[in-house]
Amino acid sequence: MTDIKAHSIEELNTLAEDIRQKILETVSKNGGHLSSTMGATDLIVAMHKVFDVEKDPFIFDVSHQAYAHKLLTDRWDRFDTLRQFGGICGYTKPKESKYDYYVAGHSSTSISLAVGAAKAIALKGEDRIPVAFIGDGSMSAGMVYEALNELGDRKYPVVIILNDNEMSIAKPIGAISKLLSQTMAGSFYQKFKGKVEKVLDHLPESASYMAKRFEESFKLITPGILFEEMGIEYIGPVDGHDIESLIETMKVAKALGKPVLVHAQTTKGKGYEIAEGTKEHWHGVSAFDLKTGEAPKKAGAKAATAIFSDTLVELADEDEKVVGVTAAMPSGTGLSAAIEKYPERFWDVAIAEQHAVTSMGPLAKEGFKPFCTIYSTFLQRGFDQVIHDIALMDLGVAFALDRAGIVGEDGETHQGTFDISYLRGIPNMTLLAPYNDTTMKLCMRFAKEYDHPCAFRYPRGAFLAEDRESPAYELGKSVLLKEGEEILFIGYGNGVGRAEEVAELVEANPAVLDLRFVKPLDEEMLVALSAKYKKWFVFSDSAKMGGVGSALLELLSENRIDDVSLTSFEYDDTFITHGNTKLVEESLGILPEQLAKRIL
Asked: How far apart are CA 153 and CA 145, in angstroms?
């Protein structure tokens, strides 16, 4: 580990530049998060200078900003393996390093984790202080305020570092605000305030009231009143790139012995001019040329997200009742085009999946057709809302689940493996999936006309199957793509393409079924096929437990069909690591050539 306790300010500034250069060199080759982690570097250097990473819990929100932390804690020499199969994870991971306190990949958990850590530290009577590092985007989720509410009441010693790289919580008012904020960051002000508070407790009621009103008016000029009112000491905004000032501010925060929020303003992409500023496409990047900032152009099939985006705009053009929402991922989910064309009908509600889901319910109730567009891994955060606010009312919200299946380098926290398992048991919910460009459009048109809750899933990148003509979707109806002998390959969604690839590699002549719906299943078709095909193989990019194979076994059991053997090639009961998708699939034994050897 790099010990920076004895480093001078000049040495720390040089180290921060070296870290940024290391990040640039690595991310330009491997891809990864760039602008936010570059902007966070000075803050993290100051954190490591003031706090003790050997004992203080360093808790990073989302943790895509934590590359500098990784470089400062025993991973400099391995950093070139970032996000590679078998290499360093792009997020904090305790199994990777003892200096990573907690797994993080989803947002807005850090303050809750810090409160939990503070409780444990208090119960154990230890001299440690949790440090939560959170970006301004994560502050849009309700979980943050649930945690702040308790923290402000319980008064545990916790330091929250708010990395504000987009905009202030409230816009500072010119030079006066800057002067006041710098003053509030100093130890003199904090000591003075503490003494004043003690004096106020002993003043007559009228004098105390006037003094407190003066203090409140003083705070109103700064953006910290929200936190102060919740019982959290506020310091800032401070310059997030002035390491010397940051160190002094953090020392003050640490010494207060109560909950403190340090509000630091940073520049995204700091140190790489091409990426500096609020440029969304530099948040997460593929490999690129350092000199030009250009990524190599990739030829290939159109991504499923792009097909979704184009089709959604077509549906919106045709019907003004079509509306949609996403939670902080407009470009990632393909909703940007619809938001740009119809800003009054499509919304980005920031990192607030619970709100996104619930808010679409009344729109469906009022006769609109909402498309709730969220990554498979992020809809997990709105699970109760899907049940309580949509399915219970049997409202026609269509859930478009992007990034279903293995997502590659983002790894365990982002794999889209569980949506079938967690949605299939919900009453009134219909589950369907496309397997190529044409079926994606047909699937969306079905969802648009369907008056009940439904969810359709599709992969990151392009579909495996080639495009072709296909019949329209009918509720609970599958399509037999190919007749065969003895063996039946059942594909769901992108699994159809994998089934067809395996069918080309085996000596047998398997039939291939596009299942289309996993809820409800096409019972009539499946029972009929069970009479002819006694060996079923299931292909779906999803968890085996509660997945497509489970649904089919339930159907066979209910129909007392006991002469069909079923093998599911869905994912085993484990969290799937990060890395190149093909390498990850090879490690799981699900590449077509590997599966072909398992067909007996």
From this structure: 12
SS3 state at 514: strand
Q: What is the DSSP string of 230-269?
A: TT-EEEEEEETT-HHHHHHHHHHHHHT-S-EEEEEE--TT
Q: Do 458 and 434 contact (CB within 8 A), yes or no?
A: yes
Nearest-10 Cα torsion for 523, 529, 531, 537: -100
The three-class DSSP label of residue 158 is coil
CA angle in degrees (0–180, nearest 5) for 285-96-288: 15
Number of separate helices (H) and strands (E) present in the chain = 23, 19
527 or 293: which carries more pLDDT confidence? 527
Amino acid letter, 442: L
Distance separating alpha carbons of residues 152 and 259, to the nearest angstrom: 7
Cβ pair 460, 405 in contact under 8 A: yes
**CA angle centred on 262, ends 270 and 70, rounded to 5°:** 50
First and final CA of the chain: distance in angstroms?
52
Contact present, 378 and 352 (Cβ < 8 Å): no
Q: Do 538 and 567 form a contact (C-beta atoms < 8 A)?
A: yes
* Measured CA angle at 280 (ends 275, 284), to 5 deg: 75
| Geometric angle at alpha carbon 443, from 589 and 545, rounded to 5° | 35
Largest CA distance in the chain: 93
Q: What is the 3-state secondary structure (H, E, C) of 61-119?
A: CCCCCCHHHHHHCCCCCCHHHCCCCCCCCCCCCCCCCCCCCCCCCCCCCHHHHHHHHHH
Q: What is the pLDDT of residues 32-72, one digit of tens each?
A: 888 888 899 999 999 999 999 999 999 999 889 999 999 99
What is the three-class DSSP state of 338? helix
Q: From CA 322, how far away is CA 45, in angstroms rounded? A: 48
Amino acid (one-letter) located at 298? K
> What secondary structure letter does DSSP report for 434?
-
In the predicted structure, residue 387 carries a pLDDT above the cut 50: yes
Question: Does 170 score more than 60 pLDDT?
Answer: no
46 and 250 in contact (C-beta within 8 Å)? yes
**Pick the residue with more confidence: 286 or 75?**
75
For residue range 423-437, list pLDDT tens digits in order: 999 999 999 999 999
The model's pTM is: 0.88
Report how far residue 548's alpha carbon sits from residue 433's, in angstroms, rounded to the nearest whole number: 12
Q: In terms of residues, how long is the chain? A: 600
Q: Which helix (H) or strand (E) holds 184?
A: helix 174-184
Active site residues: 268, 353, 381
Predicted confidence band of residue 290 (pLDDT cuts 50, 70, 90): confident
Residue 404: pLDDT band (50, 70, 90) is very high
Q: Looking at the DSSP assignment, which residues form a beta bridge with residue 480?
A: 513
Buried b (16+ CB within 10 A) or exposed e, 93-113: beebbebbbbbbbbbbbbbbb
